[in-house]
Request: fold
Amino acid sequence: MSSISEQILQLKDSLPSGVSLLAVSKFHPVSAIKEAYQSGQRLFAESHALELVEKHEALPKDIEWHFIGHLQTNKVKYVVPIVSLIHSADSIRVLKEINKQSQKVGKVTACLLQVKVAQEDTKYGFSFSDCYQMLKSGDWHEWENIRFKGLMCMSSNVSDKEQIEREFEQARLFFQEIKNDFFKDEEDFKVCSWGMSGDYPLALLHGSNMVRIGSYIFGERHN
Ligand SMILES: *Cc1c(COP(=O)(O)O)cnc(C)c1O
Reply:
């Protein structure tokens, strides 16, 4: 058995039931994804639009592709027809474009709202207050080709576990707040996408039910 499939099987064994494993295959070749596929993995994530398009073409069509990278508006049209979930909806501008492109292809695109919990300036995402205001305004009800399914966040890239836990906990609480205020009757608003190779055990302590794992499965990226 390849080490990629060993990592996947080991992860699947260790994750609590109800937690989805998203294999982050960005910068890894099609051959590596095939190995993961052979071990039964069907959920994969990419963070660059054109790389996603190429891999989607090259690989089996029962793969469920998620998009997790910052999405420029001019790339939305490539991503929308392919993906089953966009994790990185991080501005009103990109949401409007996702809605428009989804309308064009007659699709309702599932999206997570990316919120910024990290201290670093480099991480994209809505602030909690901007996200709340956006939902409160109600404008999003007009985006008929978008369905919100939950939240996504990335913790700060630090070794301080308490800080990371605090950030995930803030995301968990914010999820509960908006679930209660805006999505109470929507069963499908339930995805909490947090946790990567370095911090997923901490994310699981704070409400995560979808972990996005790259290097732990595929090894180091050469980007
Ligand atoms: C690259 C990436 C991951 C996976 O990172 P690893 O540390 O390799 O597990 C998860 N989420 C996002 C948004 C990413 O860009």
